[in-house]
Write a structure and sequence with these properties.
Helix content is 36%, strand content 17%. It is of the alpha/beta class. The protein is globular and about 75 Å long.
Length: 474
């Protein structure tokens, strides 16, 4: 260990931009064993490991780095898996530059952070190949059942922990495949779909029952599900796209980011997607403008490149230093030919029936807003126009109106539309109905959803155990 002075930081090599832009495979391979051991040996084994502190799951990062450096990979996997149900997924899609690696002590010293995410991916991918990933350890049957609404990362994490406690677990999701945004929202060049599917298959083999194509409010309302199960968990995520108020926004060719990404991912599965096949959600040969600066916007621009767009531009109202998305993803997009138009915002969209262009304004950063970030304001005289055949709106997501959709008007919500929960128990305003993930905290990171799934499973277990004790006492 402590080799960070003499051993340079080295991430796994990326394929050339021209080559990787031709397919949806992940852009970098994982480490070979010697490289993983060498990079792990750079860890300084801090007394106070800021990497773990800033990881939402509080993974035992220095410990499994040490085990990897010593060649004890199976032990490293077991330790990594002890705090996370999806370590190889987090290793691929977490913004490590803002979390663990961004807070690495040797990064502060100027030596470059330990490549934590790449090592995490390497450990668990190796575990799958070597057969070290064991079935879900199902606990003794308790005779109580849980219904989970939403098969995204929060719901999947909770399902695994609740099976380990011994509960019957049923997961309801409106899509035809489980995984939520892991399956349909994140492109394959960041997260190949077999990585997600093998996790879901493991849960199925562990007795988790998936009810797919099941829309709460249509197949059954919330009250009917409450009667089926001892307790419920709402983990739907947030899917309602934020809109743009601008002339011409309703023109054909202006699409939502999630519709665009879902269509692309479905094609990757080999599905028939009429809106893609007729060209509506296909960027091939088009001048594409993506509006937004988060990770979803980066997914959209890089997807457009792979679909053969004639040009791809990203409009964002702040500058590069103030964008919410990962700087690594921005760099990957630039390497692949995406042009970023910083400090710009759309004013109107040209085109009678179909969009032909975007009229935009130059922006400048003014005084800080309530969050402390400098608020963008229009720079007078900075109007310009971009040609566009396809405009993708990637401005973030908001909660759907779940009380109305679920037929449960008594379900409490905050002023932002997220579900209101007790901060100590994670229970909603309905007794025995819990909530976790983005539907509570708002649009956030996958790693936070996994953390919430882990936490809520413990709260649900405590509630059901107390209920069973009361029933026995009676």
């Amino acid at each position: 260990m402590l080799k960070f002075v003499g051993t340079a930081q080295a991430y796994p090599g990326k394929r050339e931009a021209e080559l990787r832009a031709e397919d949806f495979r992940e852009i970098a391979d994982r480490y070979a064993v010697p490289s993983a051991e060498e990079q792990s040996s750079r860890c300084s084994q801090c007394g106070v490991p800021y990497c773990s502190v800033h990881c939402p799951l509080h993974n035992h990062i220095p410990d499994w780095l040490r085990l990897t450096a010593e060649g004890r990979l199976r032990e490293a996997y077991q330790l990594s898996n002890s705090t996370s149900t999806m370590p190889e997924i987090c290793g691929r899609i977490c913004p490590q530059d803002r979390l663990c690696e961004g807070n690495c002590v040797i990064e502060f010293s100027g030596h470059g952070a330990v490549t934590i995410g790449s090592v995490e991916k390497f450990i668990t991918d190796t575990a799958w190949e070597e057969g070290w990933v064991e079935p879900v350890a199902v606990g003794p049957a308790r005779g109580q059942s849980v219904g989970i609404i939403g098969a995204g990362p929060a719901g999947l994490a909770a399902a695994e922990y609740l099976r380990e406690y011994g509960y019957d677990v049923h997961v309801y999701d409106r899509h035809d495949r489980a995984g939520g945004l892991l399956t349909y929202g994140i492109p394959g060049f960041k997260l190949e779909k077999h990585v997600v599917m093998r996790r879901i298959e493991r849960l199925e083999q562990g007795g988790v029952v998936f009810h797919l194509g099941f829309e709460v409010g249509r197949e059954a309302n919330l009250d009917e599900l409450r009667k089926r199960h001892t307790t419920l968990l709402i983990a739907t995520g947030v899917y309602k796209a934020r809109g743009i108020q601008a002339p011409g926004v309703g023109a054909k060719g202006i699409v939502e980011a999630l519709d665009y990404l879902t269509a692309s991912n479905r094609k990757g599965f080999g599905d028939a997607v009429p809106a893609f096949d007729d060209g509506s959600l296909d960027a091939n040969g088009k001048h594409v403008v993506v509006i937004g600066g988060g990770d979803t916007a980066m997914d959209c621009v890089r997807t457009a490149v792979r679909q053969g767009a004639a040009s791809v531009k990203c409009l964002y109202r702040r500058d590069r230093a103030n964008m919410p998305g990962s700087q690594r993803e921005t760099a990957n997009a630039e390497e692949e030919g995406v042009e970023f138009v910083w400090l710009s915002a759309p004013e109107a969209f040209d085109g009678v029936d179909t969009v032909t262009g975007v009229r935009a304004s130059r922006m400048r950063l003014g005084a800080p807003d309530a969050s402390g970030r400098r608020a963008p304001e229009v720079d007078p005289g900075g109007a310009f126009q971009l040609k566009a055949d396809l405009v993708v709106k990637a401005l973030g997501f908001e909660p759907e109106d779940l009380p109305r959709l679920f037929g449960a008007e008594e379900l409490g919500v905050t002023r932002w539309g997220t579900l209101r929960t007790d901060g100590r128990t994670m229970m909603t305003s309905l007794d025995g109905v819990f909530a976790a993930g983005d539907i509570v905290r708002g649009a956030s990171l996958v790693v936070w959803a996994i953390r919430d799934g882990r936490d809520v499973a413990a709260h649900m277990h405590a509630w059901m155990r107390a209920r069973a004790d009361t029933a026995r006492a009676a």
